[in-house]
Amino acid sequence: MIEINDLQRIYHMGTVEVRALDGITLTIEKGEFLGIMGASGSGKTTLLHMVGLLDLPTSGRITIDGLDVLRLTDYEKTMFRLYKLGYVFQDYALVPDLTVMENVALPAMLRKDRSEEQVKKDSFSILQKIGLYDRRDHLPRELSGGQQQRVSIARAMVNKPDILFADEPCANLDSENSKMVLDLFHEINEEMKQTIIMVSHEDWHKDYFHRIVRLRDGKIASDEKNLSAG
Amino acid sequence: MGKKELKVAFLLALRSLQRGSRSSTILTVLIIGMCFTNMIFLPSMFSGIGQGITKQIVDYETSNVLVSPKTGEQYITDLGTTLDLINGMPGVQRASPQYSKGATFKYRQRVLGVSVRAISPSDEMEVSPVYTKMVAGSYLGEGDTGEIIIGKPLAGDATVRQEDEFEPSLGGVRVGDSITVEYGNGYTKDYRVKGIYYTGWSPVDSAAFVTWTDMEQVEGKTLDQADSITVKAKPGYSEQFIKNELLAYGVGENGKVQTMTDLLSKSIGKVLQSFAIINMVSLVVSVIITTVVLFIVITIKTLSSRKQIGILKAIGVDKEVIMHNYGFQVMILGVLGIILGIIITLLLAAYMFIHPIVTPEWSAYLYITPWDIVTNSVILFCAAVVAGYVPAYQVSREDIQSAMRA
Ligand SMILES: Nc1ncnc2c1ncn2[C@@H]1O[C@H](COP(=O)(O)OP(=O)(O)O)[C@@H](O)[C@H]1O
Ligand SMILES: [Mg+2]
């Protein structure tokens, strides 16, 4: 469970103050598929980065499963991200010089609790799940955008994280590939009870989310369950 | 840093070099290789020249230990006793005395001032290799009188006109010819040329040798004095040991005792000093170029992958792994460059061994010891590592937000 309490993030641009997040309070349950929606500049990415421990808020509190994560040291945060969190970015962000297999295995290789065999087994099975096992020895640039994004999802999922973050993962994809990615998220969420927090500004994506939080000017504009999801 | 982190860092480094810009990798390795070659080439060339000169000086001038007249005196006195003393000492191969006298040589139309050196051939042959350098005729025999051997440059070449000569000569003396020698004391004598030698060491090549017996005739007395005594050590005995021994036995009473090294440090010490300065400059330049090139290469790599680095950190890759990734890249580049440099250097050394640059005073070949290769490799490698880790350290510390938005 994630508890966000009165989260603020203020950027200073010279003398101008930008309140990217202006008092966000939110609780996210385990297994939830949450959509964060809103216009461009409304603070979606900022919120995701705060909860994903990629940036520090100006004020407020975040606890994940009771742990006050903002109190962690830099190194502890890195380890928390490695062991507990997974990320999917808009532009896939794969390492261009590593093969599909190496990209997927990378986070698992760093884990002290994974043997080499285990890393291999996990990577193979996740590659099979996303349907790119046959392309495991290809370089990212040899794949289409949709395929690359699926690889990046595999990389995020290989360590079986507690929370999966995705920041506009379909923004660079056509609707067919977007649907494929969303279906994959849906499947992961259903089968593995995976908590997913996804940012999107495409209205039709909302059909996939269990719950939709809309931001406007760094504040929560609406927070509603989507009973028709799935 | 655990094993797993280092493994991941190494994998990232290896893949970046394998699959990144091939031409930049090759160019970097090439530059390091050239720097290595530059670092080692001049010093080992100088060292080769130095070795060559040292060998010539030992062979033709000083041998291992030189006894010369005491300051203010013209000759080493009590020669017979002194020689017996020295030759009886353990570790001494042979002591050979020399006695020089100025003379005027007359041959056909040519007149030339020459220094005539009197030697005892059997002693001299054990100390100096001149007898192996005969280009015509033969070396002096013990007790020869009226016979002389001269250097090839002094003998000259009949086909070269006098105005065109590089150094004055007698204009084409051949074995068997007769030369009139007028000594400084007025004594004049005709000598038959018994042999002509060529050593490549010009002080010897422009001189002439007669036997001790012959010189005693010239002086009209038994010669119990000498200009110098060159002492050759038996293998395994150090110069210093021989010198100490000579001094302990009182040879110092009759002459000044110096090792070859004592003499060298005076005569070519200055030359060696300027060599050392040039060597230091070439080393510093190589190190600077390597450092700057690698610094630029790694800086460009890190700056062009700032976003990439941000992403890696976001997914839980520790900054140490990022830093060592570039560290390993620079180490691999450094090692490849050094290997290339060693190959180039050895090829150059082999080439110069087969085709040495030969001049009368020295022949230039590369004198390279394994130690030179090891020290230069270590220096260059350390420079490379420093040059790589500085930008790697900086970029690995950038915060995720600014890196990802880059
Ligand atoms: N590093 C930054 N420096 C200054 N302003 C920023 C920075 N990051 C985001 N902002 C501002 O914060 C607001 C929210 O940005 P963001 O969270 O990226 O919005 P969204 O993802 O919803 O498009 C915007 O006005 C943006 O310009
Ligand atoms: Mg955004």
Percent range for β-strand residues of chain A: 25-35%
Number of domains of chain B: 2
Spans of at least 5 consecutive residues with low confidence of chain A: none
Q: Please report the two chains with the greatest interface, counting residues with C-beta closer than 8 angstroms to the partner's C-beta.
A: A-B, 30 and 27 residues
Element-by-element helix/strand order of chain A: EEEHEEHEHHHEHEEE
Radius of gyration of chain A: 18 Å
CATH architecture of chain A: 3-Layer(aba) Sandwich
> Strand order across the biggest sheet of chain A?
6-7-8-3-9-10
Structural class of chain B: alpha+beta
Instruction: Encode the helix/strand succession of chain B as letters.
Output: HHEHEEHEEHEEHEHEHEHHHHEEHH
The gross shape of chain B turns out to be elongated
Average pLDDT reading of chain A: 94
Ligands in the model, by name, code or SMILES, are: adenosine-5'-diphosphate, magnesium ion
Total strands of chain B: the figure is 12
Average predicted confidence as pLDDT of chain B: 90
Structural class of chain A: alpha/beta
Describe this structure in words.
The complex is a heterodimer of chains A (230) and B (406). Chain A contains 6 helices and 10 strands. Chain A is an alpha/beta fold. A 6-stranded mixed beta sheet of chain A has the order 6-7-8-3-9-10. Chain A has a 4-stranded antiparallel beta sheet with strand order 2-1-4-5, with helices on one face. In chain A, helix 4 crosses helix 5. The mean pLDDT of chain A is 94. Chain B folds into 2 domains: 192 residues, no CATH class; 185 residues, no CATH class. In chain B, a hairpin with a 2-residue loop joins strand 2 and strand 3. Chain B is elongated, with a radius of gyration of 32 Å. The interface between A and B is medium-sized, with 30 and 27 residues. Magnesium ion binds next to helix 1 of chain A. Adenosine-5'-diphosphate binds next to strand 1, strand 2 and helix 1 of chain A.
